[in-house]
Amino acid sequence: MSKTASSNPASKREIMAWAMYDVANQAYTTVVISFIYSAFFVAYIVPQSARWQDAYWSIALIGSTVLAMLLSPWIGQRIDEGASKKRLLAWSTLVCASFTSALVFVSPGDVWLGVALILVTNTAWMLGEAIISAFLPDIASRKNMGLISGLGWGLGYIGGLISMVLVTIIMVTADPDTERSLFISQNQWSMVAISIYFVLFALPTFFLLKDRRQPLVAKQNRVPWRESLNLRKLSAQQPILLRFLMAFVFYMAGVQTVIKFIGIYSSGELGLTPADLVGVFLATQFSAMAGAVTFGLFEHKFGPRPTLFTVIGIWLIAIMAMYSLPTLVEISGWQVSHLFMGVALLAGTGIGAIQASSRSLVGQLTATRQGGSAFGWWGVFNRLAMLMAATFGVVADIFTRQSALLMVIGFFVIGGLLLIRVPLKEGIAAAAAGDKPPAGNPEGRNE
Fold it and tell me: pTM for the full model?
């Protein structure tokens, strides 16, 4: 068995090197998936005469999500069998960066090439997120895991801001109306810039972070790929972790709904201008960074249960305020943009905090020897939450966007109720007991 972080603590330099990967990979999801390339792809790569517009992007996202859900448990199992986390992380990083840079060759009309590249890059990015998280039990004790997870998640938002400045202010400067060809070229080359950024900012992780591995399992004794997807096995071996993940998937679906649909809701329902949306983005980035770090400190002092319930409470207040915005505008006389900014700040605080706290709790509920598979399953439930969040658009079309917010509130309520029933203290204690070396091997084995 490998030594735990409590018996082999990581240096501050190593912890910062681990956190730098969050700074690096945030550039991809911020620029490519969430804000810049997604809009560029729909507006300029997909022909305006095409019958489907947004559907191509949805195919890429859904396909990559399903692939990541299938591969994450297997990658996690390989880590538990002694595979090098650093090597697996390097592969996911290089695949994501190299195929992202290949987007420079995607010109207007090359729809399926773009879809294929996004499918590969987003799958690699999601696998990398699970792999880097699997390092957390190596560098943190259960006592400070929330603090370190919050630090990494908070610093990640700085990466999002840097990459947005790089693309929107430095790289893409042409007017799309009068300099269309130049504008397209600048967007294409910005993907190369993001790839280079990703690799450069990830270098400290690969140079300074140690690769603490489990004893290598002989090839003939390794778990088959299909067996790694056995949910009943997870239930038998880590029942409390599974109960937590069942709660996590619901409240995380609420978070993912806000992340994926905040732009559509704020512009389509509230009539916010592009300038207002930029202000909302900046506000949520800074509040998310502050929330991740602050609640990391909160968890270090008070523990994971009070932290998660506090953050879920913040989310419920934010979504209920969003639902009540028309009434609040009428009562207060304030502009809807000003009130929505306050809601966005509150929600932003919850975005960083709830993801960082959830990631640390997975590590706390898991014995070190099972850390890889635990974070692999965390990746699966995280992606399942994304698929659940996609139902917001369907519900909004059937009813209204305002009514669909009630579904988001329901996600958080169900998640909170399920979380009440999870014996977190017992789970953390059982995981700590699982780290004790077996008889005859008092020091453990660290390869």
Answer: 0.88
pLDDT of the residue at 407: 94
In the chain, ranges of CATH 1.20.1250.20 domains: 11-212, 233-434
Q: What is the CATH number of domain 11-212?
A: 1.20.1250.20
Write out pLDDT tens, residues 154-184.
999 999 999 989 998 999 999 999 999 999 9
Distance CA 73, CA 14 (A): 26
The alpha carbon dihedral of 198, 199, 200, 204 has a sign of positive
Task: Collect all residues with Cβ–Cβ distance below 8 Å to 398 and sequence separation of at least 6.
Answer: none
CATH architecture of 233-434: Up-down Bundle (1.20)
The answer on pLDDT for 312 being more than 50 is yes
Count how many Cα atoms sit within 13 Å of the Cα of residue 48 in the half-sphere of its side chain: 2
Per residue in 67-99, pLDDT (tens digit) is: 999 999 999 999 999 999 999 999 999 999 999
Contact 231, 417 (CB under 8 A): no
Per-residue tokens: 31: 């620029």
Encoding tokens for residue 41?
A: 């792809």
Cα dist from 428 to 23, 202, 376, whole Å? 29, 31, 18
